[in-house]
Amino acid sequence: MKLSLPGQMRGSECRRVMPRATALRRRLEPWVSSVTHPDVDTLSVVMRVGGSLGTFSPPGVTNVTADSRTLACDLVIEDFGWDALSEDRIDSILAAISNGPGRA
Predict the structure, then answer these.
(1) Strand 70-77 vs strand 42-49: parallel, antiparallel, or unpaired?
(2) Taking every pair of C-alpha atoms in the chain, what is the biggest distance, in angstroms?
(3) Residue 52 DSSP one-character state
(4) How many CB atoms lie within 10 A of CB 64?
């Protein structure tokens, strides 16, 4: 299975999150590639990262759909004041999200 990780951000400071999320995606790719299902070949997780210009909705996984061999969902991440956080803290927030449901 392939993993797609497009993103939408609410504020220029959220740019700091995407390189860290890309690194997380690289760590998840071996696991995702081992998942097989006859009807799905792509997992598409749209990261919606809240920031200084607002948020998208409450944090968590929303809008789960399956269409044309793609399983898709939105992953809403609330505003954490990205400019003020260290790279390690951003990593820990993304890791907490990847470890299971709930808030980071």
Answers:
(1) parallel
(2) 44
(3) T
(4) 9
Dihedral sign for Cα 93, 9, 76, 25, please.
negative
Residue among 100, 99, 89, 97 nearest 48 (CA): 97
Residue 97 sits at the vertex; the CA angle it makes with 95 and 102, to the nearest 5 degrees, is 145
Task: Residue 50: name the closest of 22, 81, 73, 23 by CA.
Answer: 81
Nearest alpha carbon to residue 55 among 30, 82, 77: 77
Q: How confident is the model at residue 78 (pLDDT cuts 50, 70, 90)?
A: confident
Model-level pTM greater than 0.85? no
pLDDT over 50 (residue 93): yes
As a whole number of angstroms, the distance between CA 15 and CA 17 comes to: 5
